[in-house]
Design goal:
Ferritin; mainly alpha; binds fe (ii) ion; globular; 277 residues; AOX; iron
Length: 277
Amino acid sequence: MTTLTMSDNNKKKVDDEENNNNNNKSIVSYWGIQPSKVTKDDGSQWNWTCFRPWESYKADIKIDLEKHHTPNTFTDKMAYWTVKALRYPTDIFFQKRYGCRAMMLETVAAVPGMVAGMLLHCKSLRRFEHSGGWIKALLEEAENERMHLMTFMEVSDPKWYERALVIAVQGVFLNAYLLGYIVSPKFAHRMVGYLEEEAIHSYTEFLKELDKGNIENVPAPAIAMDYWQLPPESTLRDVVVVVRADEAHHRDVNHFASDVHYQGRELRETPAPIGYH
Ligand SMILES: [Fe+2]
Ligand SMILES: [Fe+2]
């Protein structure tokens, strides 16, 4: 895994986005669909098509990072130890390569929200009932995790075997989580809650390595500056801090969702924490 020169890499990504915009114009205009011209508050051009200014936000970095759900029931203990068991091979495989580790883990972290959101979507259709906003909240989580991946992609360059590993892990994890959610949503959400607790720990270790100088604190990728509304002089360290705050929010949402199930209620009976990040 190599660290790229940020300025070159950022410029290339911006150019790619601009080229995409230019290439699309002739196709979409036939259908009467014109790409909307989006600008930032300062009037400069918005360079991203994957998210828009109104989807960007300032992360709440004051969130409590230490919160932990003590596993008391059999289901909780199973969720907790499943996550702990998954951590050992991850620690051995990645050692202290936290940039690479973050990128690979985000490929997994972006799956549960999408799977759970899809299952609730289908349930809403089958039962002719509202979702309480949970479909949206869970899809938001998946998209937020995918943006973490899009960000860490900028500072890491996965090798072919790491890409192969992602494909294999996705094949197994997506199906396992799908089954797990169908059988027990309270277990599935609890497990994601613990996964997020581990993610917070991983990013804290990442920050320690950055502070020790073992990982170069390069300028923040352009996509991260726009997504989290970071100031111009921001660095990779600032990005890790806001990503870690996002993980703490996901932890809360998933433990909360599991608690709702524990109270014998369905998620739709409790308004979803849309926009909680
Ligand atoms: Fe993440
Ligand atoms: Fe997360």
